[in-house]
Amino acid sequence: MSSSSVPDYLRDEEVTQATRDLISSLPKEKGWLVSEMYQYQGRWHTQALLQGILICQKRFEAKDSDIILVTNPKSGTTWLKALVFALLNRHKFPVSSSGNHPLLVTNPHLLVPFLEGVYYESPDFDFSGLPSPRLMNTHISHLSLPESVKSSSCKIVYCCRNPKDMFVSLWHFGKKLAPEETADYPIEKAVEAFCEGKLIGGPFWDHILEYWYASRENPNKVLFVTYEELKKQTEVEMKRIAEFLGCGFLEEEEVREIVKLCSFESLSNLEVNKEGKLPNGIETKTFFRKGEIGGWRDTLSESLAEEIDRTIEEKFQGSGLKFSS
Ligand SMILES: Nc1ncnc2c1ncn2[C@@H]1O[C@H](COP(=O)(O)O)[C@@H](OP(=O)(O)O)[C@H]1O
Ligand SMILES: C[C@]12CC[C@@H]3c4ccc(OS(=O)(=O)O)cc4CC[C@H]3[C@@H]1CC[C@@H]2O
After folding, report:
1. What is the predicted ipTM?
2. What is the rounded end-to-end Cα distance, in angstroms, of the chain?
3. I need a surface site. Which of 118, 132, 134, 249 has the fewest CB within 10 A?
4. Where in the cell is it found (predicted)?
5. Which atom belonging to ligand 2 lies closest to the Cα atom of 45?
């Protein structure tokens, strides 16, 4: 991260000539936080994250034992990282003797690497050194996943969130990330961009639907969970994740302890998640806001909520996927 307060993923000037060459042929649009975003394989990206995705597609070699957490931004990534990290490491770091659990002193984003972010920051990063099973996360769409992720037996846990809450979370996150750039940007315009699929990683519906269908076609490969179910019945969903990942028998007490350690109240009150920045320049506290279902009501007017609802209705009809709120 440079000395500027602008987080790395919003900066344009550090991409390679190869990325610039590709970018020159891609459709572009003015972004909300960034001056330009580019459409690659159907999705809109900042230059930095696009470069990370390109390198990831080229270099990442999945192993059968890998676990990849996939989300749209602001859909529960931080929480899912914490839960699955604690689950996989429950013998190495028992949560009951939690005085020295890594999650108490380290932000979940530093415990679970963000594939395209790491490849942007360090193109030569060697993931082969990570302990097995390797746990990583990405926002990459199903269509754009590295070939080896699809062809190997690695497992994908996909977490989806009600799009209205996801949008509102992104709206507040963006305002914290780039206060000056977003100051004069009306929420009406952001909702419009969201519904047109023109916010980072968008269209959100394609992202969700691709993983939704992949989970139905191959339930042993892709597990589809929702933020809402995780919130309403965290222990049940944790056990479902554990079973999918082949974690073996889990004591009820173990599950309870993990759920408690990873709760919004617990994580958001830790010093490490209240102070300081990630190496990419994003403040750790920006990943914790309200942590609720249906919080969109405090931010969206009725007509903006209806605009998103219309998009949801149109894009998800016939898919069998319903969002609770
Ligand atoms: N432990 C936790 N439990 C529930 N929600 C959490 C959480 N940690 C973070 N969140 C919420 O998840 C959203 C961030 O998503 P991501 O991790 O994908 O960036 C934020 O939502 P809100 O902005 O609605 O509060 C944040 O508050
Ligand atoms: C991926 C990320 C959450 C989204 C962040 C983001 C959001 C909106 C942006 O502007 S625009 O392209 O839509 O105009 C840009 C960004 C860039 C940083 C993104 C964050 C990095 C890690 C978070 O999970």
Report:
1. 0.95
2. 37
3. 249
4. Cytoplasm
5. 12
